[in-house]
Amino acid sequence: MQNQTRIVIENVLPQLDGGIYPIKRIVNQIVVVTADVFSDGHDVIECCVKFKHQDDKKWQEVRMVPKVNDEWEATFKVEKQGCYTYFVEGWVDYALNWQHGTERKIQDNQYVKSELLEGAEYVSAIKDLANASEKEYLETVANYFVNESDYDKAIQEALSPKLHKIFKKYPILFLENKSLELEVYVDREKALFSTWYEFFPRSASQEEGKHGTFKDCEKLLPRVARMGFDTLYFPPIHPIGEVNRKGKNNATNAEYGDVGSPWGIGSQYGGHKSIHPELGTIDDFKSLVKTAKKLGIEVAMDYALQAAPDHPYVKDFPQWFKWRPDGTVQYAENPPKKYQDIQPIYFESSDWKNLWQELLDVALYWIEECDIKIFRVDNPHTKPFFFWGWLISEIKKKHPDVLFLAEAFTRPKIMNELAKQGFSQSYTYFTWRNTKSELIEYVTELTQSEQKEFYRPNFWPNTPDINPLALQNGNESIHLQKYFLAATLSSSVGIYGPVFEYQISAPMAPGKEEYLDSEKYEFVKWDWKKQNKITTLITRINSIRKIQISLQQTNNIVFCETNNDQVLAYYKFDDENKNKTFMVVSLNAFHTIQATVKIPNELLIELPLKITDLITDNKYIWNKEFNFVELSPDLPFHLFNIE
């Protein structure tokens, strides 16, 4: 390929897969762009990042500054939701090159009259681009350059910072080169910072043996708000299939009165656009959503693309399911788990366009009818990646505030691909990371690798599907530790309650991660008024998260050295480095332990450090590089604010 430009632009970052996918930010975050930019020879080069929002007509520009080894860097802020495009542009700057060469000759006491005449041409070339005062100055300089009687003034102006600044302001681009255009998608703040609480609405009743309703749920909203949660997620609220309905503890055959799994969606009462009649009406649900919003809570719905055998889809659109020779549909499986009450949708159907449109219409129905702006998507990794890319982009064209949480616990590349396709947040492996080395390795991967540009983690210590071994029959301390880690390592956190805060963690069988008497298959009467140390400390931690900006992001984190493998220490800071928090956590749920903690190098210059434990309000002064801590199972962590 013939190209006359002398500029080479390589390794433009951040970008994903050669620019196929956009990186992610939230409103008012910055994008740090780096690139290797160079040319042949020794001429002065300049480069910039140009960027614009999808609704803007004109490009904005920010100059790049040289780092080392021909690497350049620039930053720009994304101030609106939607898609931004950016690219790197570079050029040989002949005017600056002239000034640099002339300066060296003048310093060598050479006579530069010819060079000054050349400089007059560069000055004249930009004169019409300048403002009035600059134009007047340039005309004076040009006269100096061409009049030999003004030689002394001419060489003084040739070296002047003022002329340098004007040359830099008005570059003449000649044989410039451009990188590929790249994109960044900008979400609202909640895509990065959110605090989730999940409970089963059918367990909201205060009467023994009575199915909960949305009106019962509405009465629980003040509890959720007091604990500091801003997102309330419900498992599916649709009619539950009666054919092949599951019994208690995942029994294959349901007994009379068994309520089944909410994920077995669809029955004679309707499908994905219907509400389970025992929960209430569509108006009851709208009232719940509206009341929650007044309390600062958004209701998140479960978006589960599957059907019970008696879902209306099965009769009305049989082509959307894969039928076997014996006239049955293979039920869903995730070995060793079996879901006889669920039929997977056949995405390879020849009627796929109508199928996709219907599934889009389902999401749009809840968005436009009930003002739902958050979906937790069930098992997205079992549906085509490009379907998700299409669906999410179609929804965001019309409703950019809508967010999607990917509930996919599977292989890393698959989880990454879902995030690249547009999922706003993703579940993670945090649930199974327990040791100091495991936690450091995993969080470092999330925050320091390419994942930081597109994968927004949401840390959940438990879910209805996952009763992790670390929590099974666990004491109060392990529950406190797990929530603290989740809420301070990640800017988004969630728990399945009240199972978590009430320490309900008995397994169905030894070594199994299923809950005994799981709410997936029955409803439970909870004592929703019960308060304990876990609820108190969750409330305290959540209130701190709302104030400390450093905890409202994930990537700015530094792990700190300790002399005890059961003590984890880390330091977080906001993008402007104004808010700083320092966390120390015991990973031993049974014994009091001691350690010395090393202050990160970034903070050594600030010694002595005045710190306040935001949990206890105790104040300390750390005036040494290594500092002593003691942590007990009663309160296994410190959360320090650094003044």
Would you give an account of this structure?
The longest helix is centred in the middle third of the chain and has 19 residues, at about 350-370. Helices cover about 30% and strands about 25% of the residues. It is α/β, with parallel strands linked by helices and about 650 residues long. It is globular and about 110 Å long. Strand 24 (about 565-575) and strand 25 (about 580-585) form a beta hairpin. It has 15 helices and 30 strands. Strands 20-19-18-13-12-11-22-21 form an eight-stranded parallel sheet. The model has no long low-confidence stretch (mean pLDDT about 95).
Instruction: Name the helicity range.
Output: 25-40%
Q: What would you report as the Rg, rounded to the nearest angstrom?
A: 31 Å
- The global form is globular
Annotation, overall tally of beta strands: 30
Task: Provide the β-strand percentage band.
Answer: 15-25%
Number of helices in the DSSP assignment: 15
Instruction: Give unreliable regions as ranges.
Output: none
Overall pLDDT, averaged? 96
Find the structural class using helix and strand composition: alpha/beta
Strand order of the largest sheet: 20-19-18-13-12-11-22-21
Q: Quaternary status of these chains?
A: single chain
Q: How would a crystallographer describe the biggest sheet?
A: 8 strands, parallel
CA-CA gap between termini: 58 Å
Core attributes:
643 residues, alpha/beta, six-stranded mixed sheet, globular
